[in-house]
Structure formats: structure tokens, C-alpha cells
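BUG-209 | component: ligand-complex export | severity: low

The export step for manganese (II) ion jobs runs without errors, but we want the raw record kept on the ticket for reference. Input record follows.
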Amino acid sequence: MAKYTLPELPYDFAALEPHLSAKILEVHHGKHHKAYVDGANKQLELLADAREKKDFSKIALLERALAFNVSGHLLHCLYWQNLSPKGGGEPTGTLAAAIQKDFGSFENFKSHLTEASMTTMGSGWGVLAWEPALRRLMVIQLHDHESLAAVGMVPLMALDAWEHAFYLQYGPAKADYFKAIWNVWNWADIQARFDKAQSVDLGLKSAAA
Ligand code: MN
């Protein structure tokens, strides 16, 4: 049976300094992300066990934990690949054009994603996603890793707003983290995801015009 696995970071722990410290990356990847990988695999085991025993008395709790851990794992995989020591600046090409069309300007988009991320109540994420029915970009705010998500959207760019993403380095100066991260976005990675998302077809006739 296939299992979820913790991918290696595509760069050294210190590669994103001074914007994100080596200590943050080491703990965030090796402890926090790993816990979601282990949690997702554990929930799958517990669900298989429940089917085996025909005991669905804890099904709602198990499904909730499955959504939380699988989403936590996949969002972190996206976050690591979205960042690069050679990142920063602004996107170009078709992604830049789509941002212009759907948000008015890059500055508007940057403010929208930053504000959506910073204002999560408790823990969460701000995400740039492709909505295949309207065929446009949208910014969504996730609570935890999965609540407030809209079905069918393809996440392209994920901004981790959990305290574990910044507190060791920035402490309560939260706004500094949300500013610094714009120096390390890997626009080539986000563009490649945008290109791939164009072929997603939900097959929902007349859902948008
Ligand atoms: Mn995280």
C-alpha cells in the first residue's frame, strides 16, 4: 500500500536566510511537516481498521483528522517548492497577465494574499488558487489546513501563516515575516503550476459564463 512520505527540502536549511532562518526550516520541516505525514498515514490505517471491524462509531473524528493531516502534508510540500533562495521579484509571462486581469495589479494581489494570510483566526494559510469553472485566479484563506477551502480549486502558491512558520525567528513581529517571504517566492515554480492547472476540467456544464 502506498504511503505519504516527507520529501527532502529542495535546498539547504540555511538557503532562505536571512528571510527564513535555518533553525525555522529545520524544525518546520523535520517536526511539524513530518507530524502531518505521520498523521495522514495513521488516519488511513485507523480507517482501514474501522472498515475491517465494521466499527464506524468514530468515523466523523477520523474523517476530520484525515482532512487535517492530508491537507497539512500537501500544503507543506507546496510551500517548500514555492520558495527558493533565488526567488523574489515579480512573476512574468502568462502568470503576470492573469494576476493583472484577476486582481487589477501585482500590488493588489500582494496585499490581498498578505492580508488573507495575516488575518487567519488562530492558525491557517493564504493560498493563490486556480478556479477551473470561472477559469480565474482567486485568493482563499484556509483555517487550520482545510477549513474554508472551496472544492475544485487547484492550489498554486501557499503562504503558511501558522506561528510555527515564523515565531522562532520573528517572535511577535508577525508582519516582518509576511513582508520577508516576498523575497523568496519561486515564480518559475508557481508559473509551472499555473500552466498545468489550465488543463483541469471539472466537467460542470453551465457552471459559469
Ligand atoms: Mn507549517
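Assignee comment: Attached the raw record above. The first strand starts at residue 124 and ends at 131.
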